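Inverse folding, one chain.
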């Protein structure tokens, strides 16, 4: 199963200058819990935004740069090649950024989206979800608190 996992604001913002524009510790915990032990597919810029590779995950990085070969990663030049590497009987996750989500959404079976209830200025955006192709199968609202400056909702979409 191919699952997109993302956090985006109400205006589909993902981030600016290769950084998130919010801090939601519970969403980070959820991301870690869902993706640990799995293959994760990302673009080069997303990978480079990490201080180091994420533990207990197989990193597949899509890049057009020749000779790009970060230690501990599998580098490919297309979404198709990335998906070929993923075990067919396991869930793999597409984790961003914006261009990679656009490339991957047509291959995906499921979307795990955290909607941050705010509008942000951004330079990377999550693609529009076509509700004729997708349906929300689970939704869980989370209120802001001392560690979370914004309300947010975990939404699970399944392909119709």
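Residues assigned per position:
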């Amino acid at each position: 199963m191919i699952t997109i996992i993302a956090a985006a604001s109400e205006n589909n913002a993902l981030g600016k200058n290769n950084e998130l524009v919010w801090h939601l510790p519970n969403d980070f915990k959820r991301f870690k819990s869902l993706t640990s032990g799995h293959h994760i597919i990302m673009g080069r810029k997303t990978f480079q935004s990490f201080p180091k590779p994420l533990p207990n995950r197989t990193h597949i990085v899509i890049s057009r740069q020749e000779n790009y070969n970060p230690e501990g990663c599998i580098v490919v030049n297309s979404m198709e090649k990335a998906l070929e590497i993923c075990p067919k009987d396991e869930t793999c996750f597409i984790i961003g950024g914006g261009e990679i989500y656009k490339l991957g959404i047509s291959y995906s079976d499921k979307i795990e989206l955290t909607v941050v209830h705010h509008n942000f200025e951004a330079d990377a955006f999550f693609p529009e979800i076509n509700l004729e192709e997708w349906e929300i199968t689970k939704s869980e609202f989370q209120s802001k608190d001392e560690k979370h400056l914004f309300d947010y909702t975990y939404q699970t979409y399944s392909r119709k």
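The longest strand covers residues 134-142. The mean pLDDT is 96.
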